[in-house]
Amino acid sequence: MYALFDLDGTVHDKTQSLKACAESMHNKFLDSGGDANQFIDEFVKENCIIQPKAKVFENLASKFNIEPDIEANMLKYFDESFHNYSKRFDGVLECMNYLKGEGVKIACVTNGRGFFQRNKIKALGLECFFDVIVTSGELSIKKPDPIIFNAALETLGASSDNSVFIGDNLKADMEPSKKLGMRTIWVNNKSDLKPEFVDYKLSSFSEFRGIWQAITRR
Ligand SMILES: [Mg+2]
């Protein structure tokens, strides 16, 4: 069997990482007179919209009256340092060790700039587990395009019917991987929904082993 993981929101706790980075950037770049919580909320919101990072900081600059040279320094700092704030979801390391112990080959298939995603993977301590890393930035193709999934499968030497995709996004991860014939595990602890293209729902990585065993026993 082969396991293909999304990164952000699946193994990387993006929201917590963004909050920690925002707090530090508020202290570093902005007068401490301003409201840090308001900045943190906007920072998280802007970074969760699919848009270039330059646009994120342009929007933050206009909302919080940030001077152009500070805005440029903030963008540079974010690109160079965000990975230092990266946090894993609980249980991810145990899950990766379990899969490696089972002899499973693992890929990471992620939307984002190559250097940025790879820095995060390293900082999260996950680089050693991934046999293959595919980023949309390096391929110039984003999920949900099947091309990026097929590129990962091909590099792994896998076929879709012996592969499992684990991701948090229904449109970008679950629907396209199911269409290609993979088994799907949806990382979600908020929604009661379970669309037909989701085989298993995972609300915490403590459930991973049981789900994997259910899949491989078939
Ligand atoms: Mg994601």
UniProtKB/TrEMBL annotation:
InterPro entries: HAD-like_hydrolase, HAD-like_sf, HAD-SF_hydro_IA, HAD_2, HAD_sf. One of its GO terms (molecular function) is hydrolase activity. Keywords: Hydrolase, Magnesium, Metal-binding. The keyword Metal-binding applies. Coiled coil: none annotated. Pfam families: HAD_2. It comes from the Bacteria. Its cofactor is Mg(2+). This is HAD-IA family hydrolase. It comes from Celerinatantimonas yamalensis.
